[in-house]
Design a protein that fits this description.
Length: 498
Amino acid sequence: MLAGIRSHLLTLAAVSVAMPAANAAPAAVDSGTSVTTLISPDGRQIAYGQIAVAANGEQRVRIIVGEADGSNRRPLPIEAEAVDEVQWYGNDRLAYVTRHGQDYYYLMDLDGQPADELRMPPGCDSFHQQCLAPNGKMIAFCGNHFEIDKRFDSDDERRKFLEDHPDIKAERGGLFVVDLEMQTVERLLDEVVANLPSWSPDSKYIACGIGGYQKDYPLVVVEIETGEVHRPDVKGVASGWSPDGKCLAITTDIVKGGSWRGGIPMDGAMGVFDVEKFLEDGEVSLERVSEPGTNVRVEKPNSWSLSGSYGAVWSPDGKWLAYRRQESSRNEEREKTTHEEVWIVRPDGREPRKVLVHGADELAWADDRTLVWVHDGQFGRVDVEIDGAAALGPTPAAPANRFTIKGRVTDGQGRPLEGVEIRVATGIGTLLGGGSGRSGVDGSYEVHFGPGVSFTEGGPQLQAASVHARKAGYYEQNLCRGGNLGMAYYRPKDVEES
């Protein structure tokens, strides 16, 4: 029996960030620009954000660019603490933000040189979500808008100014659209929208769910030119439009709401809503295409389990949907495990199958049969006709004849940290990699591993088991001393517990 590990305490390392001049002029908008994620508009290149750690432990924030097949990748360093969002702005520039809530986009060319900025008027405060239109001419954001024309050196300075001037007229909450060239702001919805809006491919419509961090989100489709709001009798959060703009993938059939990611509940199912049919004749046609979500809590013994689907992307021919699926559970000791997968399915719900046994932070189609993905800064491709046809089978929660270690990771203030890499090295003298895993949304983790050295004479197989926690931009306060453990099939008589 292996003793449990104490929590690793991680503290954010100080990293300087260079901010642009506050009075920079809005970028000139290229009328021929297309905006895409991960894959360039011409389908030839990839770009994604990455936080790497150098040999000396120094954090490196960068954008990786390369060919769509993953070859010829190279890093473009940026001076920031993180990179939150990277998009193609045409085939020769990148638009990116360095943190959530940043009210503008930096532009960079493919040599890593600054290439202007896409700035909204200074009164825009996109503290919930923001997204570029596919035509590159507009930004939709969810938050507040203040009637000020003064530019500031930083967002913090602007917010301090607003606190000191409560009489400034404000439109609080809702969905706004900024015309980047004219620098005008239009409020499309006055209800709270805390989930990421979804632009139609022609940039004529926006779909989103009304509300913030709740169970039911009434779906709305807003026409940009007229401002008309279409309200079908559908509950759901928009995910992505089909290439022809006729259908919309949504997260729907929410069980209870909970474990939100970007405002999207993690206990829903993927559905396909026929937008064209509704706009033409008012008919509501919604097809659920994934397994239903679950959200079950038991009082005795105190446990909880949740599963759901989200984040769908359409293949270029509109014949496939790829989406993420997450399963989480917590036992009586409040230890939590999380598992993610990527599935594909036909828009009518036929032929569902799992193609990845891990999650995807970025997901896009390179062509009608090839998915490209980025997860934890790593890039990959999967041919759904070949790789996705294999019987992947379930990932075992606890493999047989393996040791298991569980714990929880927090920062210096005791808050849970998600995505921390946990590695276990076992052996005597030379410690070999025994197993690895990552912490979930509540900081908990579960890692399975075996001995690094096996003795032929049998016995307890006593050896070291060193547990290490690592996350880019953080350091471990106690040098992982809490992870200096021993492991054995049983406790030898001559070993005292310490």
